[in-house]
# Entry
Amino acid sequence: FLQVYVAAYRNRKLQLPEDPSDLYEISKDKEAAMEVEFLAHREIFKFLDKAAITTLRKTPNPWRLSRVTQVENAKIVLGMLPMFFCTIIMTLCLAPLQTFSIVQGLTMDPTITKSIKIPPATLPVIPILFLMILVPIYNHLFVPLIRKLTGHPTGITHLQRIGVGLTLSCLSMTAASIMEVKRKAALPKSQPLPISTLWLSIQFFIFGVADMFTYVGLLEFFYSEAPRALKSMSTSLLWNSMALGYFLSTILVKLVNRATKDRTRSGGWLAGNNINRNHLNLFYLLLAILSLINFCIYVVVARRYEYRPQSPPVEASKVRVDSNEKAAAKIKVEN
# Structure
């Protein structure tokens, strides 16, 4: 991919041919015995097409000339990047939800029954439990039902699935903000507060459903759209998205505390160890607004995305037979 970008930059002053078939590509007949992937030219990211403009050089330099298939693979990866960046904000929301909810739970009533109590540190397990229940229900009940309505093999497209999850993450942050207002309203009464810790499971339930849509949809999207040589590497994009979200969450907390340092007694919305003096509800509301803005951006880039053509793989042996038949027919005509 780096060779494609370098070649496109070096050839930036060259004129693209009117016929895309004039762009450089190896002969399918000559390469019939090799497992070479071929992709058709598409009218997107046309500035990368200049990497495939044939020059007068006898020996092609890979840093100056790329195959059409290489260029199309680079287009696919470039088109996937906006979706990758739009999903980072979801993990950015998940990180504070997991950490601050434990602190909230320490101030609330953990009693379920007289003999059963829920430890606040187990709250982040709730989304995983919901996922274990919801994923089979989604695959065996929801997908077949929606498939009858839409005619799509997966019920809804991968990008639509990601969009649903991003919407639910915004709702989860809104629910978390409302729950924090409710928790702080009970502060003067007693310790622990007369509010069950299970109330926090609402925001975790919504986020668990969001996980099912966004993370699973993102993984399927990356795997189905990635070039053949990058199928396994595409899986790492999901974990990179999550890692960047957690990292940026730390930066966001520091920025919020710095910006609100002089406006609160605790030295910031999230500063100090006393959560009752903090303004966690405002921070959750900020995350909800960021999620909404992120979703609007996602809708724009998702509507402009063009799925790669899904052509069935052709076996090398079959291509080789076809090539031999063509060669035999050519000899017969010449004779």
Summary: The longest helix spans residues 231-259.
